[in-house]
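Entry 14. Structure prediction run on the chain below.
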Amino acid sequence: MSSHASTMSDKTSYRYDDNSNKLLKKSQEAPMFPIAIGVLSMAVAYGAYMFKNKGKMSTSVYLMHLRVGAQGAAVGALTCGLAYTMVKQYIFKEE
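Output returned:
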């Protein structure tokens, strides 16, 4: 019985280690990933703060501005990621 219990705990710790290392491995493979998560978090916090303090602006106009800003941020992030990939692939030529 103790053999079965230790096997179960080994599998659980292996699974936990595997999941915790996935984020680290993904961050090393694609450094834009954690940057994008951080920028997204800041944009959401800023949007929530500004919604609370929007003043006399109507909600629909505010949400329209927020949508345009979010789309611009997404296009900017994609452009930066593409530029990073192209520089890494064609200028520094990792083989």
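Helices lie at 2-29, 32-52, 59-91.
Filed with the rest of this week's runs.
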